[in-house]
């Protein structure tokens, strides 16, 4: 699974109910998409702006279009602006992929027995595998690889960590996740920090 898909499935409980506000998860998914391209050596981030490395196709039409847009921009696009654009429909796009792959299942329920709602519970085995990997990293049991460290950072940025580790000891968790974030490469850390800022701004806009 790609980083964006792993973050997305962590954003819901066993019944498929959102664990954080959809706007926050969309921002996180958009950030995960950029992190994937950084880790693949296709996107550079410096001083809050994006650049493209290489011209070879990625094999993903959406990512190729994104790289082309960055490459053809009159000036290096700002990271925050790119995240704001990429967040639109980010979660829905990932949900569509995961439904096709059978990771998510569409179910119809009724809230309070009256209001119809649609939920998308994830394969518990998939979620468990991701969570265990994060648990080992977050509790210092293993040195996380770059994708796992980035996922820890993004999970923390969208405030999912207490949901993900709800059945696990939380003592020192926030500090450990901050330590992992501090060891991320500069480009990945810039993206995670930008996600954190946008999530906070979105929350303020909702409640003001």
TrEMBL record:
Topology within the bilayer: Peripheral membrane protein
Main location: Golgi
Family annotation (Pfam families): GPP34 (PF05719)
Keywords from the named record: Golgi apparatus, Lipid-binding, Membrane
Highest taxon above the source species: Bacteria
Compartments in which it is found: Golgi apparatus membrane
Transmembrane portions of the chain: none
Listed InterPro entries: GPP34-like (IPR008628), GPP34-like_sf (IPR038261)
The protein's name: Golgi phosphoprotein 3 GPP34
Organism expressing this protein natively: Asanoa siamensis
